[in-house]
Amino acid sequence: MSETTEVAATAQTGAVVSGGSASLWGDAxxxxxxxxxxxxxxxxxxxxxxxAAFPSLFTSVGPxxxxxxxxxxxxxxxxxxxxxxxxxxxxxxxxxxxWAQIVHGTRAPIIVGFLxxxxxxxxxxxxxxxxxxxxxxxxxxxxxxxxxFFGLPLLLGALVxxxxxxxxxxxxxxxxxxxxxxxxxxxxxxGQVLSxxxxxxxxxxxxxGARDLRIxxxxxxxxxxxxxxxxxxxxxxxxxxxEATLDYLGVGLQYPTVSWGLQLSxxxxxxxxxxxLLIYPAVFLTATVLSFLLLGDAVRDxxxxxxx
Length: 308
Description:
By secondary structure, the protein is mainly alpha-helical. The chain has helices at 24-33, 36-53, 98-104, 107-134, 136-150, 154-162, 170-196, 200-207, 212-224, 226-249, 260-267, 276-303, and strands at 8-10, 16-18.
């Protein structure tokens, strides 16, 4: 190997290792690049992200815009969405262009999915780190608090809490789901912190006089948080599924907000006569949830040396 192409990585012992990078994330990225399922999931999620962020690129009609009740429940001319026409996906029960409604319905579930995951992740990293690092009474208190939330079924808890709010907007739904979503990730974070808090490099930092905050942030978290991030990535799709379920049951987002769950709810009673009203949003919802699960599985496998 020539000197211009040789890459040197310094090991913990101070020796120089020639060859490819020994970085865990670098090895994981190279493994991901070889996985077809990873790229399929990335392409689908990139498309969904564009729908959510820039709906005007795909439709000139606004949410709940251009509706004509005289054209309500107009069936699509073809099941081929690329067949063209004024309404390639037909119209809904209010005479709105269904393709435009599906495009605008992408934003709410994706925002809720990431907000809920972000809230739960922040709580899990904070509480799990405190519980695992300090232990004793604090660990006992946080463990019992986690048990209490584990005993409350997530969907039932969300149903009970959301019915008490006068309005069920995106942020209200995200806040409620986030407060109920953190226990599993917190347990995972606590276990990871417990596995590394007595490592030699942590003990060395203590002997050198490093404060607890610096030890946790600089030494423990970088070596403990990866599995929690992977689990969070896996659960974005699951959260989107729960969001659609709450909308479907009528306690989630409300009109005039547009979401796939609301579209499924409106289509349930007329599915036999107008199946396209349920099939189109169901396909988009399923593709999004499945893509997040495939992406999370691929990242998890790539970060686990035992599965390589």
